[in-house]
What we know:
Elements: E1 3-8, H1 14-28, E2 32-37, E3 51-55, H2 69-76, E4 84-91, H3 97-108, E5 112-113, E6 119-122, H4 127-142
Parallel strand pairs: 1-2, 1-3, 3-4, 4-5, 4-6
Helix pairs in contact: 1-4
The structure holds flavin mononucleotide.
Protein name: Flavodoxin
InterPro entries: Flav_short, Flavodoxin/NO_synth, Flavodoxin_CS, Flavoprotein-like_sf
Cofactor: FMN
Amino acid sequence: MSKINVVYWSGTGNTKAMAEKLGEGIKEGGKDPEVTEVSKVKAESLKDEPVFALGCPSMGAEVLEEEDMEPFVAELEQYVQGKQIALFGSYGWGDCEWMRDWEERLKNAGAQIVNGEGITCLNEPEEDTLSALFDLGKKLAEL
Ligand SMILES: Cc1cc2nc3c(=O)[nH]c(=O)nc-3n(C[C@H](O)[C@H](O)[C@H](O)COP(=O)(O)O)c2cc1C
């Protein structure tokens, strides 16, 4: 069974819950989800993976978490040409500028964003978000 990586950062568990639901969908789709907190992964390990998912909440002022996720994504950019990447994350009060910037950044580096945009949710993911993540996981398994 081939694996699909889901790499995330989460401070209070909302984006982690999203990552886990995405992993359930990947499993349902017949692939092996590898759901890992970003500090435990090297960007280089995704170099040969054609499809994977990244999750991070909106932090700072509409930016990625700066200690682990930001440097991870900065390093990853050199490897993403031609890859299909799913994005997701929770936010608290903004208008999802962080997600739009993240999508643009990866597209500019040559990646395709699966479904054209990331999945976002206000604070804790509710049933509609979890269901969308489950479906996205199944889709990733089929790509
Ligand atoms: C230091 C800090 C900065 C934040 N900055 C933003 C922000 O700029 N925009 C926003 O919508 N939410 C912001 N939030 C809210 C988080 O994105 C929100 O609480 C989210 O659900 C956290 O997800 P997590 O549980 O995966 O850590 C911030 C939260 C913290 C702690």
